[in-house]
Amino acid sequence: xxxxxxxLPTLSVQEGDNSIINCAYSxxxxxxxxxxxxxxxxxxxxxxxxxxxxxxxxxQRVTVLLNKTVKHLSLQIAATQPGDSAVYxxxxxxxxxxxxxxxxFGKGTLLxxxx
Amino acid sequence: NAGVMxxxxxxxxxxxxxxxxxxxxMKGHSHVYWYRQxxxxxxxxxxxxxxENIIDESGMPKERFSAEFPKEGPSILRIQQVVRGDSAAxxxxxxxxxxxxxxxxxxxxxxxx
Lengths: 115, 113
Hints:
The complex is a heterodimer of chains A (115) and B (113).
Chain A: E1 4-5, E2 10-14, E3 19-25, E4 32-38, E5 45-51, E6 56-58, E7 62-67, E8 72-77, E9 86-95, E10 101-105, E11 109-114
Parallel strand pairs in A: 2-11
Antiparallel strand pairs in A: 1-3, 3-8, 4-5, 4-9, 6-7, 7-8, 9-10, 9-11
Chain B: E1 5-7, E2 10-13, E3 19-24, E4 31-37, E5 43-50, E6 53-56, E7 65-68, E8 75-79, E9 88-95, E10 103-104, E11 108-112
Parallel strand pairs in B: 2-11
Antiparallel strand pairs in B: 1-3, 3-8, 4-5, 4-9, 5-6, 7-8, 9-10, 9-11
């Protein structure tokens, strides 16, 4: 089954507000997490990643927080813009035997930014 | 650097036909992954390949689906005798090393009629 899931399937915010998208994972062996943005008709686009030895990482207007105690991570988008409207996926990486890994995706959250 | 190239972008097949989806990884990437995405769902892992080798095919259906990544040329995902349930978007990703640096292509949207 899914090792990564999202709390909310949809999120609607006003332009300029901050957005927070949450994600839960179940596999304690997950050591690397990635957030992707997918616009309609396009492939997933890398936003930001974080390793399990960190609890926070910042990028341009985005911050990812990782709480390993409760197996939860979040993506914060500052000053959300209409161009941020998309589906956001979290993905976790787990060892899958030998030196191999598997990247597992959650179902996604649809973010809608209202002007 | 052209990124991960997938073609065709859209593919329509009748039930029972074969579908061949192609993926050219980014330059310098030797790891290729195929994922399937149903409408309003996340991406489901299908198969992971390196040049000439299938490393992990745990997500591939046992019948009708196969994948290859030859020494020369793109990776191919092949679906034989397609059925309506095969209709989905198929994404390919590549990475320079296993488990990191994934870059996704724009996908092939397969419609079975």
